[in-house]
Amino acid sequence: MRLVVLGSRPLLALILTLTFTCLSHLCHGAAPFPQDLEPISTVGSEHTYLYPSFQGNMSDNDTARLGMDFQRMLRINHMLYIAARDHVFAINLSASAERLIPQQDECYNYIKVLVPRNDETLFACGTNAFNPTCRNYKNGFGEPVGGKLPLLGGTGMHACESTKIFTPQALTKTAGLHTDTHLAARYCREGPVGILVFRVTLCVIRTGLAPPGPVVAHRHFHCPMSSLEQDGEEVVGQARCPFESRQSNVGLFAGGDFYSATMTDFLASDAVIYRSLGESSPVLRTVKYDSKWLREPHFLHAIEYGNYVYFFLSEIAVEYTTLGKVVFSRVARVCKNDNGGSPRVLERYWTSFLKARLNCSVPGDSFFYFDVLQSLTNVMQINHRPAVLGVFTTQANSITGSAVCAFYMDDIEKVFNGKFKEQRNSESAWTPVPDEMVPKPRPGSCAGDGPAAGYKSSTNFPDETLTFIKSYPLMDEAVPSVNNRPCFTRTTSRFKLTQIAVDTAAGPYKNYTVLFLGSENGRVLKILASTHPNSTYSTQVLEDIDVYDPSKCNVQGEDRRILGVELDKDHHALFVAFSSCVIRVPLSRCSDYGVCKKSCLSSRDPYCIWLSAGNCATVAPGLKSGFEQYVESGYLQYPDSCHDVLATTRKQNPAVDSAYGQCTK
């Protein structure tokens, strides 16, 4: 046999040709591999540069020099909280107001935990120069967290009355300003501002009841500051907050207890799922240094649902060690009433910890997997069933590809009630545990419920049950995605999708689902998702939006990766976060279609309607009639097109590009 050495370019071309040939024939005798969908319209930077942006406290030298260093966003009612380096920012979505909360630490402090503890308290943790620390903060305005926030202050930038409360209208009247005027107010408070106190700025950047629209870019505000007092003592952040900003973490309060998943040391050698801060519940954690429980995990999301808290993560798969380091996505589960094991087995450890693989793949004779979870939603209704949706990507050393998969919560429960997986020895394959080897009560059950209904506490479980769950926390079957296929795939772009936000009630009748997908290259894909059984339409890319603005976000060079997206449907906005800025993007651009009926209706945008007055407009809340809209098929009655602002960028997409376009059975 003769060995033929090919040049690098011909070899690469051959590999790519063979790869995509294989992909297109994955489903022999079935539907072809889904092609990438083309967007109906493309929104370029010449439009998006006008969108309002937030870059942090630019008067702070470190922020001006290094950028905001975004960490996470949290939306509670009409308040949007943004955690960054040394600062937490709050934006009043109802009044388009901003409250700036910089922390007065000398060392860099990345705010990695920001969650509501109750109706009046926020719980925040920071890396604190590799010494994680947490604090509770009461709402300094006497209102529930995220509740209606009055504007506090005096006339313009000068007066300060600490006891007087101004509504937006009263403040406008006092200052002699109109409701559409940019203005600023402050709330003054006696007392020093020390290292343990956050400082607050309240900047009103927009008022009035009109629908939000483009705001003049590059507007700067200089606002006075006041203090927001800490509630109680500082709390040690270890096992609740990572030691440095690159370590992943999630956290939430459920039933008064704080559930966290992170690293407990600087070297990230001890990953943990941890419960603490409860008044009556014992502190519990996962077994230390046991790869069967956690192996180099990257934590993405946590959800309270029913009797459990679920953790969504990706990790190195222990069941595929012969293939090297292969990343799998998982869902893990613990019981909220878990009290740990007996003094003999699993004392101070979870007795209910189980985990299972999430299967996001294109079906066929050879499945094509999207193994790496990037982002996940909270529980929402898909086809009247509770479900979560997530963005998944291919392995780091594989062909670049992304997909959106949905998972029903009851399908997750079915897997957790199924067979366990075991490896008899280090040389054998992983196989299901025979039913006769599973002790009773069933391992992973919650005390007082189901198979363990006869046990008041997990501390009373038999040693056999505790020993089993310590050795076999992995379930045999993977959780299937809705309809056993992705809702949306993208495999020809070299940029992966990274974030997801979902509106399951779009349109005047609230019967359409729209996905907003952030990517590595600073673009947001707006997707009309087919989520109904026997749907008469398929999934369609409505818009490809270039959100990244170098003039606002290039503080430390170009970093186009979208790190977070947060939907504010009440104010028709999507907040898109980059490392150094957050940009507010309207959910639609209906007014750009103007008086061109064809362009308006051909957009298939659930947020856009054609009014009898002869113009394209955004759907108003409660509007049920007196308009035209063609979401499912587009508007094809008139062959002529208008010379509207988007005509040169719109691309029509053939129906054949919609294989695997449905989410549901």
Automatic annotation (TrEMBL):
Residues 1-29 form the signal peptide. This is Semaphorin-6D. Pfam families: Sema. Keywords: Glycoprotein, Signal. InterPro entries: Semap_dom (IPR001627), Semap_dom_sf (IPR036352), Semaphorin (IPR027231), WD40/YVTN_repeat-like_dom_sf (IPR015943). GO terms for molecular function: chemorepellent activity; semaphorin receptor binding. It comes from the Eukaryota. SMART domains: Sema. Residues 1-587 form the Sema domain. The keyword Glycoprotein applies. It comes from Triplophysa tibetana. One of its GO terms (cellular component) is plasma membrane. GO terms for biological process: axon guidance; neural crest cell migration; positive regulation of cell migration; semaphorin-plexin signaling pathway.
